[in-house]
Amino acid sequence: MVTGMTESHPKITKAVIPAAGLGTRFLPATKATPKEMLPVVDKPAIQYVVEEAVAAGLNDVLMVTGRNKRPLEDHFDRNYELESALEKKGDESRLARVRESSDLATMHYVRQGDPRGLGHAVLCAAPHVGREPFAVLLGDDLIDPRDPLLSRMVDVQEQRGGSVIALMEVAPEQIHLYGCAAVEATDDGDVVKVTDLVEKPERADAPSNYAIIGRYVLDPHIFDVLRTTEPGRGGEIQLTDALQQLAADEKVAGPVHGVVFQGRRYDTGDRGDYLRAIVRLACEREDLGPDFKAWLRSYVTEEM
Ligand code: G1P
């Protein structure tokens, strides 16, 4: 416990990243490589997510993994062989790039075993998290590092208690791809009160066009709820269903609020969006951007 914090508002330090999915949308690339390791420019997608957690002050990261996910552990660990080869060559800049991921955060791993859904993956984090609020970051959602979202959610949770989810307005024909929230306005422009939630509704049944994007700051009571949450959509234990129970009764674990995100987000689990993320982030890079943009401009005008 950090001095000065009251028991009801312990400081949030832990991030949970579910990473047990099979990545079938990227086969055959993901046959022997975890989807989280696919590069976005020159860093694996998962590294952006861990960097985002660290940037929001969460240095304790638990990954919920499964079979064939060993490369994730290796990526965030030291690689002495590679480091000593680069040291011998005097290649300081690459050496720094190699060490970046192992110096980033305190990493922990737990295996999900049976793939019983996102809610079940989060429940696997219960022994590690204990009874403090914590964050969940889904690896498929990449939030542009220039548009901080998680730190805002942590602030809102510290001010208002309970749980906080990230929401984004999407086109009505997209809502069936997401968890969807019924909301009420608050006195804060980017914060709404969540009154109901439904996982991947049909367009006609959706209570709004507010979609859950993969960032959550959760009250630990979510674990108690998840233990008794029945399988829902797709026969899986859904995190959205457990949150719906919290939203329905504030007395259990405080309110559920949403932070409405208006920044740049990429779904790296979708092939088209994955390509867009690479192009946009490459264009922004000081080292690669100028040449790449010049090429892109001529490619678009001459070839398309
Ligand atoms: C999960 C959640 C869903 C959320 C989405 C965000 O679904 O279950 O509520 O809207 O992440 O990316 P998935 O995309 O893993 O099927």
From TrEMBL:
Swiss-Prot/TrEMBL catalytic activity: alpha-D-glucose 1-phosphate + UTP + H(+) = UDP-alpha-D-glucose + diphosphate
Species name: Streptomyces longispororuber
The EC number(s) this enzyme carries: 2.7.7.9
Top EC class, one word: transferase
Similarity comment text for this entry: Belongs to the UDPGP type 2 family.
GO function terms (MF aspect): UTP:glucose-1-phosphate uridylyltransferase activity
Any one Gene Ontology BP term: UDP-alpha-D-glucose metabolic process
Keywords for this protein: Nucleotidyltransferase, Transferase
UniProt-listed SUPFAM superfamilies: Nucleotide-diphospho-sugar transferases
Protein name: UTP--glucose-1-phosphate uridylyltransferase
Signal peptide per UniProt: none
Superkingdom to which the source organism belongs: Bacteria
Domain Nucleotidyl transferase: residue ranges: 14-279
Organism taxonomic ancestry: Bacteria, Bacillati, Actinomycetota, Actinomycetes, Kitasatosporales
